[in-house]
Amino acid sequence: MKSWITPMQLDPITADAIATPLESHPDQTALVRALNERFAESTPIEILEAALHDIFPKRVALVSSFGAESALLLHLLAEVDRTTPILFLDTGKHFDETLMYRDILAGRFDFTDLRSVEPDMAAIAKHDPDGSLWSTDPDLCCQLRKVDPLERALEPFDAWITGRKRYQSRARAALPVFETLAGRVKVNPLARLDAADIEAAFKQFKLPQHPLVYDGFKSIGCKPCTIRVADGADARSGRWAGLEKTECGIHRN
Ligand code: SF4
Fold it and tell me: How far from the centroid of its chain's Cα atoms is residue 45's Cα?
């Protein structure tokens, strides 16, 4: 049975709650409740250090879109452990600027395990032969190009780290730092940060901006499904604009 925690590094109550291996944990809701209480006042880098070194050593990956605010989480990750696996969902629909930005950040932070996660090309050939599925069935497009590939890529891991924040949209307003999804724990170290915090951190750490930020994009996903947003609007309102859809599905709870 895999031990996935170092109990001596946590208070006894939390250690008791999470000492059971994740795959056989009887109550993952209780687990994330204990983690959220334990790390309620912790900084993003403290949360990252705990997740990477104490709670899920060698069993956690970070998922990055290399979008508008991604450089901050990647900077913090590099401070803690630049060998952490990083998963990038290469949907085949990204802006060229995103791919360039990915390469710039990967070089700057000297990451050693950046993984490009691609769709099953047989499924794409069957369901999206001309590449226009995004316009007729975006949920299926996201399923094929994001959700299914990520599920396969996450198989070796008990937990994954995301860069989501509460301020980004109403749908994310109650985002916890730790949550569960499909038998894994998701860690959101930046959940409590707001736009001013992010802007200040970019200045403090002299982080390069995604090129499209200078062109009015605040949240950057696939090219066909991303538009500029007006000042004062939700950062994510430019994603799937005009549709009910607000998330791609990888964060569906
Ligand atoms: S964001 Fe758009 S193009 Fe990208 S996978 Fe989803 S529907 Fe397809």
Answer: 15
CATH number of 7-238: 3.40.50.620
Of 32, 43, 28, 87, nearest in space to 189 by CA: 43
- Known catalytic residue at 248: yes
Query: Quick one: pLDDT band at residue 1, thresholds 50, 70, 90?
Result: very low
- Residue 188's CB is within 10 A of a number of other CB atoms, namely 22
157 Cα–ligand 1 center, Å: 25
Domain ranges of the chain: 7-238
In the block, residue with structure tokens 């980004």: 168
Nearest Cα neighbor of 151 from 21, 63, 246 is 63
- Three-class DSSP category at 3: coil
Tell me the best of 130, 133, 147, 222 to mutate to test the pocket of ligand 1, counting ligand atoms within 8 Å of each CB and taking the most.
222
Residue 251 CB neighbour total at 10 angstroms: 17
Q: Whose CA is nearest to atom 6 of ligand 1?
A: 142
Q: Which residue has the higher pLDDT, 18 or 78?
A: 78
The single-letter code of the amino acid at 163 is G
Give CA separation, 130 vs 96, 137, 141, 148, 247, in Å.
19, 13, 12, 20, 23
Nearest partner of 238 among 218, 211, 252, judged by Cα: 218
Whether the per-residue pLDDT at 169 is higher than 80: the answer is: no
Burial class (CB in 10 A: 0-12, 13-18, 19+), 7: middle
Average pLDDT over residues 99-115: 98
